[in-house]
Design a protein that fits this description.
This protein has twelve helices and no strands. 44% of the residues are buried. The radius of gyration is 18 Å and the shape is globular. It is mostly helical and 288 residues long.
Length: 288
């Protein structure tokens, strides 16, 4: 084990900073959506910025090793899943406030438990299934599918959760052979290459500087956040980091209040609490 793996405090700090970046990424996405930034343009520019930043950060250390992968098909699939993840998230934030959206995204560890059972045939205890059901119940409290303000667009975060869970299951298999820096580089590069094929269909010139600024911030915070998270996992085991990732709910709620003046109501706070408690209990159960 290298020396950096013995600094759990630094890993936890990096993970918390990553959650701050992700909260700001989602806030920027919601702001861009309100400014009517086309979805295809937002996705393409986000991957363009990520690819440039990742290359600039990693090339001095990796150089030609950035292109060395033992799992090209898995890298391609991961890039496609990342496109879907960001696309569903961007669309979701047109309908769901950023704090509530982030809380629903905290269902991902529970969804990973479900997919690990279905796809990888991993055994899940009765308590594990109860926590999965509890987490999704919390999401329904936040979404309120029978409320007067409900519409189908509010189910988009659940699609984003599913895609992100598939992404995590795939990544958990890839880390056995793939360097995390190489994987991060390929994810951005594949995302950029694939979206470049379709972005002309939705391209339009943005006349408002705020639209460009929102997209730039999305790419900036997304790239920095993912890089910090990679470094965090290099410092500290995932089981130690997992509980601190829920700090993103707090950051997102504060960012949503500061940017849009939105604060979750009592029912939304109840749903957020249920999701967080079930997710934390599931993480503890998995690593006990």
């Amino acid at each position: 084990m290298n020396q950096t793996a013995r600094r759990p405090g630094l890993g936890i700090l990096l993970a918390i900073l990553a959650t701050l970046c992700f909260a700001l990424l989602d806030t920027g996405s919601q702001y861009a959506g309100r400014l009517a930034v086309p979805v295809l343009m937002a996705i393409w520019l986000r991957f363009a910025i990520q690819t440039l930043m990742t290359t600039a950060l990693l090339w001095p250390q990796y150089r030609g090793r950035l292109f060395q992968t033992q799992a090209p098909r898995a890298q391609l699939l991961r890039g496609l899943l990342m496109i879907g993840s960001f696309g569903f998230s961007f669309l979701s934030l047109m309908f769901i406030p950023v704090g509530e959206f982030t809380a629903i995204m905290m269902l991902i560890p529970l969804a990973v438990t479900l997919l690990a059972s279905l796809l990888l045939r991993e055994r899940v205890s009765p308590l594990g299934w109860l926590l999965v059901a509890g987490g999704f119940s919390g999401a329904l409290i936040v979404i309120r599918p029978h409320g007067s303000d409900f519409h189908l667009g509010m189910l988009l975060p659940l699609l984003s959760v599913l895609v992100n869970a598939l992404l995590q299951v795939l990544t958990s298999r890839m880390v056995r052979t793939e360097d995390p820096g190489v994987t991060h580089f390929y994810t951005g590069l594949i995302g950029l290459a694939c979206t470049s094929l379709v972005v002309p269909l939705g391209w339009q010139w943005l006349s408002d500087w705020r639209q460009w600024a929102a997209i730039a911030l999305m790419g900036l915070f997304g790239s920095i956040g993912h890089y910090l998270l990679i470094k965090a996992f290099q410092q500290t085991p995932a089981s130690r980091i997992a509980p601190y990732l829920y700090a993103q709910i707090g950051f997102a709620t504060l960012a949503g209040w500061a940017a849009f003046g939105h604060a979750p109501d009592a029912l939304a706070l109840l749903g957020i609490a249920v999701i967080a408690l079930c997710g934390l209990a599931s993480a503890r159960l998995r690593h006990s």
